[in-house]
Amino acid sequence: MSKPMVAVGETENHHVETLGVAPVPESARTMRPGMLFLIWALASASATTPVIGLLLHGIGLWNFVWIVLLALLIGLIPAVLLAHMGRQRPIISMVMARRTFGVGGATVLAILYTIVGAGWFGLNTDVGGKILDTLFPGNGILWYIVLGVLQIGLVFFGMEVLEKFYKYTALLFLLCYAVLAYYLFTQHPFVMPVATVPVHWGTDIDLVLSFSLLAWAYDFPTVTRFCMPALESEKIHQRALYAFAPATGVMSAVLLMGILGLIALQMTGDWNIALLGKNLPVWGEISAIGVILAIAHTNAMNLYPAVTKLLAVVNVTSKPRRWMQPVVVVVLGTFATWLAIAGILNFIEGFLSLLGSLLFPFTFILVIDWFYGERYAEDVTLFYRPAGNWQEYFLWPAPWAVSMLIFGILLGQLKYLSVSRIFYFVPWQVSSAIITGVIYFIGLRLADQRQQRRKAA
């Protein structure tokens, strides 16, 4: 591969990841499908994940299960392909995007997605701090600091330590929530959630996808770049295990914790199972451990990718500066934690959701360009070529890709401007992204055919 092997050597010597946005050398690509599944399942299993039960309250248990399964089926193809892309070229999605959206477009997107990742890190820290303060009143700001320091510390040491953290805390996390579930079912009469309102299948599927799979999928390469390389000699079933692991991990957590939230809401009037034992000392400690782990599991996969995106902005070339990544982790994590303490993030949640609307069309455009343009076969140094002048910031197909991204965002907003009931039944947010991807593909084909005719003439 290229020179960045030195970066991993530094990581190993100092036990701190200093890789930055450089390609992961083969010596560090050892992750297996089981660990890949575990990381994304735990990242998706936040203390706030059961809130999907509140958002979809009234549709009934079995309709909820069907909606989650349909959302998985619809979002599976781009999610699987993105996971595979990280094994084809061990680089993050924002570096991949440079060949699609240009260095300029990818840099702007990286800045926006850094804000999204850091913002949700802060919001989750805020939620976790409030839950812990409810369980143990009087500590206030202390819980925010504890959560912030813990999470920053985990990401500071990089993926190697994060793997161990997920591996060794998975069982403890499951035990904590199993105990809380036991308390729920033994201390409250069971009430089956039944459908009491009409199911808006399209709207609900969009909600689940934006809440889970397609909100995470563009970050799959950030983790799969540490997986074993995809070789031509690799067996199909082995390749499938790697490709499907992140998507099934994310949606398994959404399904199980969503069901828990739905049932808890029906039985107790509160979706937040972590608060059920707040009046009992022992149960309170168990809740606190579960909450801390759940928040840390999720926020590690908010902050770590956000750090890599910010590094993609400040470090275009592949060779990272020593300690650049650890410094960015501390600065970005501290800033996001401070925003949580200050309560500012409550006012920008809508803004973060708006930025998140970029994800659907961005995902489809990136995937189509990657495989149609065979970016996986290009020399990795092309992804790190700095722009020599302003025109090189938006080399083809960047103008077309950026135009279609804007088109996709506007098309996705159409349902808010229409009173048609068709949007209740068609998942328009993902449908508009698919339409955008198809038009983008047609544009690429026409441009290639035109170029071929010119050569023939």
Walk me through what this model shows.
The two termini are 39 Å apart. Helix 2 packs across helix 13 and helix 7 crosses helix 13. The protein has a single domain, classed as Hydantoin permease (Orthogonal Bundle). The N terminus is likely disordered. Helix content is 70%, strand content 0%. The protein is mostly helical and 457 residues long. The protein has 20 helices and no strands. It is a multi-pass membrane protein. Its main location: membrane.
Helix and strand topology:
Elements: H1 5-14, H2 33-44, H3 51-55, H4 61-88, H5 93-96, H6 98-135, H7 141-156, H8 159-187, H9 201-211, H10 213-216, H11 220-224, H12 236-268, H13 281-314, H14 324-342, H15 349-356, H16 359-372, H17 398-412, H18 414-417, H19 422-425, H20 428-456
Helix pairs in contact: 2-8, 2-12, 2-13, 4-9, 4-12, 4-16, 6-7, 6-13, 6-14, 6-15, 6-17, 7-13, 7-14, 8-13, 13-14, 16-17, 16-20, 17-20
Keywords: Membrane, Transmembrane, Transmembrane helix
Pfam family, one: Transp_cyt_pur
Transmembrane segments: 35-55, 61-81, 101-121, 141-158, 165-185, 205-228, 240-266, 286-307, 327-348, 354-372, 393-414, 426-447
Count of helices? 20
> Which H/E pattern describes the elements?
HHHHHHHHHHHHHHHHHHHH
Which stretches are poorly predicted, pLDDT < 50 over at least 5 residues? 1-13
CATH architecture, please?
Answer: Orthogonal Bundle
Strand content: under 5%
CATH class: Mainly Alpha
Please tally the β strands and state the result. 0
Provide mean pLDDT, rounded: 89
CATH topology: Hydantoin permease
> Based on helices, strands and strand pairing, what is the structural class?
mainly alpha
Distance between the termini: 39 Å
Sketch the major β-sheet: none
Rg over CA atoms, rounded to whole Å, is: 22 Å
The fourth-level CATH homologous superfamily is: Hydantoin permease
- Kindly give the count of domains: 1
Helix content: over 70%
Estimate the global geometry from the Cα principal axes: globular
Organism: Acidithiobacillus sulfurivorans
Protein name: Thiamine permease
InterPro entries: CodB (IPR030191), Pur-cyt_permease (IPR001248)
Membrane topology: Multi-pass membrane protein
